[in-house]
Amino acid sequence: MLGVLVNSVAVILGGLIGLIFKSKISDKVSKPVMIGLGVCVLYIGISGSLEGENVLIAITAIVLGIITGTVLNIDDNINKLANKVEQKFKKENSVESLSEGFVTATLLFCIGAMTITGSIQAGLVNDNSILITKSILDFVSAIMLAASLGRGVLLSSISLLFTQGLLVILSSVIAPYINDSLINEITCVGSLIIILIGTNLMGITKVKVADFLPAIIYTPVIYYLSNFIINLFN
Q: In this structure, what DSSP letter does residue 90 have?
């Protein structure tokens, strides 16, 4: 769990630094920085998406995931929850959106190749190297996100602690059922979602990214089902 704790602390420290220097960073600077950060996120997403070995698994998972997410209205419900918290802490006449910072940072920090592989590696062989590396990237990202989106970024550290902590714990339980191919497929689908975060950060799209989250859950189900069908006819 060391890597998880380090990652969460990195987000908090980065967020605090971003908030401290927020007033000194003008929109003229912050907007291009957010676009630059979006480009970096796109790179991370595209790189991870190439890990997939079966494009049909990714397509099926994404389609089923967005259908499920839309029906369950996941993105709007997350925003409603964040907005309730926001109303309790938002200062009068403040234009800062707590929910935007929380949702954007949570999706960025909690989804993707390094989160999945790093947490699983930490849980299986007690190797925190990937999570430590991720902590450095998240630290820099948290500074820029907090400077642009505000205090909601700090709250994402709670989501990060819970998500990665849960993955580390579960990895020891599901270890006998995990192989490199499955990890690659999950990484691929998670990275495709990361790409959407990147386009949102750049202002190209306004996609409800959280609605795609069920795709990650569908991925192992589709993976094992496809393998079962293939073995059945071989």
A: P
CB atoms within 10 A of CB 68: 17
The identity of residue 128, as a single letter, is N
Q: Is the pLDDT of residue 59 over 80?
A: yes
Q: Which residue type does 219 have?
A: T
Q: How many domains does the chain have?
A: 1
- pLDDT for the residue 97: 62
For tokens 């099926």, what's the residue? 60
In Å, how far are 75, 158, 167 from 123, measured between CA atoms?
Answer: 29, 19, 8
Compute the average pLDDT of residues 220-233: 91
Rounded-to-integer distance, Cα 187 and Cα 199, Å: 19
What is the DSSP code (8-state) at residue 1?
Answer: -
Structural domain span for residue 217: 2-232
- CA 115 distance to own-chain centroid: 8
Residue 165: CB partners within 8 Å, gap ≥ 6?
1, 4
Q: What is the pLDDT of residues 15-32, one digit of tens each?
A: 999 888 877 766 677 678
Q: How many CB atoms lie within 10 A of CB 95?
A: 7
Predicted TM-score (pTM) of the model is 0.75
Which of these, 156, 75, 167, lies nearest to 118 by C-alpha position? Answer: 167
Q: Burial, 93: exposed, middle or buried (Cβ in 10 Å; 0-12, 13-18, 19+)?
A: exposed
In terms of pLDDT, which residue wins out, 225 or 2?
Answer: 225
Cα–Cα dist 22/195, whole Å: 26
For the chain, how big is the Rg over CA atoms in Å? 18
